[in-house]
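User: My advisor, Dr. K., asked me to get a structural model of this assembly before our group meeting. I'm new to this, so sorry if the format is off. These are the inputs:
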Amino acid sequence: MTVDVRLAAVTKRFGAVTAVDAVSLDVPQGEVLALLGPSGCGKTTTLRIVAGFEAPDDGTVEIRGRVVNDVPTYRRNLGMVFQQYALFPHMSVFDNVAFGLRMRGVPRGDVPRLVEEAMALVRLTGLSERFPSQLSGGQQQRVALARAIVTKPAVLLLDEPLGALDKKLREQMQVEIRALQRQVGITTIFVTHDQEEALTLADRIAVMEHGRVIQVGTPTEIYERPRSRFVSDFIGVSNILEGKVVSGDAAALVIELPSGSRVSATPVAGPATGDRIEVAVRPEKIRLSDTADGSVNVLAGTLANVVYLGAVTYSYIQTADTRLVVMEQNRAPRPASAPSPIGRTVHACWDVASTLVLSSRP
Amino acid sequence: MLARRLGFLGLLAPAGLLLAALFLFPLANMAALSVRTRFPGAFTYTLEHYAKFVTEPYFLQVTQTTFTLAVVVTILTIVLGYPVAYYFVRSRSRLKHVIFLLVISPLLVSIVVRTIGWTIVLGNEGLVNNLLRALGATREPLPLMNNFWSVTVGMVHVLLPFMILSIASVLGKIDPALEESAAVLGANPAWTFWRVTLPLSVQGIAAGSILVFCLTIGAYITPWWLGRGKVLLFSTTIYDQMLAIIDWPFGSAAAMLLVAATMVVVTVYFTLLRHVGPR
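Assistant: The format is fine. Below is the predicted structure of the whole assembly, which you can bring to the meeting.
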């Protein structure tokens, strides 16, 4: 498979701060890669290095096999959608979209047709003569996208592309961008702090913290097999349990919690008997039951709080070791009023495979 | 609604009263003076002063010099000021604050000190001439003072801050992402400037130009000092007519024509500019 973008040990320092720390990433042709992390994790700087706005202090950036460290932005053949879209306010929608074509010396006669095609791709027609200030946020977003893809760039860069839109529109645009990207097949890197956006849009997610890429994988891998506490906390919600490995044979990894309760996990390489480790359990993997239901992993506790959210209910269970959060789908019809279950003793049960062993080092 | 409107008027009142008392009233007075046959004393109404001004070649020459000076000074301040404003807005250097102080320094120095400073630099025994003679480049001192260009230099010096600050205030509001966006789309720095930065900063150039243009036309002390009667300008002419020749009605007519001509130029300029820049 051809690699469209390759970062090799890219490092960027701002004074004493290392914003990007030896980041290496390969983005194959046609892939959508999300750089996901909290603010200040270096994801935006990484994107800006690919764009050529920042020069790396170390490492190399390759686009389609060519090292571009010394190639200025305007010769990198990129498309980019900025956080606030950065549409040219003094140009009509048509001129905005045509700008890249004109700069690349596309024959004058072809410009209107190509602009038209790009506008059709983002499902925005008939607004060519408008100015950006006369468009809604969603329309500006579409113009920015059309402007970025009209030149058929090697790579499309998106910097928090949906951050400025309200929730409904954002969800709609996520689906549309995904569909558009599939249709055009353009290699895409996008930056986001929104885990849902990353899960929706990306083929692969690179989770960043303190300038480093700490885990790269498909959305499923990242969610189902987080390797560190940070990743498991940042993507979704996790119950973290700390304990000591009491047996690590081939059948199961057994961890003893401070209270003496034991939980089992699928064995992994690394932890040895006696090691202190952390494991995570996703809230939706836990079943609540009045009695131990025969699962290997059962923790008893009292129901401390219940939050009803319509589609799902969150229950907070105080066990001897920690407070667990459990998410249950409200599949069965619920009576409009029921006696408060708070204070009841319940059992939190989950499968061995749902216990995620986190590396001791983040 | 009415109370609200009166409230707004209240905000305008202090400045309005001041303008009326110190600007509109004298201006009206001057307009009245300009159509009197003589002042002081018995008079009839006449337009002869205006006719005299527009028919005598001397005054046409003065008008031409004045407007040429204003245009040249405006263009020079744009060319010299724009890069400084751009640096000032985009630079992350700590030197920026020193530059800012240097930029506004001409305004901090008294007009007398500033013009005498230029005399020291440009005079026959001045810095430039002494240097040229020491280098053997010339034997006789070059006539650097008391001409159109010495006045231009003095005016550019004092008016440059107005241009820089006007342009910088508009440049500062341009999102740097717009320039980055142009670069991503394949525009090299020159094209980015020409197609994005410049059109978006036109309003700043316009505001600065109006300030510089009007201040040049009305300037009196700097042209008088650095021109020493060799550079005849509108303002010096009005001064001479009123205080040397003591012909108040004619001086007033000249002043009214200056105001009118300036307003025409400014209006035309603004109309032209409305077709560029952001909407």
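One thing worth pointing out at the meeting: Residues 225 and 268 of chain A are 12 Å apart (CA to CA).

User: Perfect, thanks a lot.
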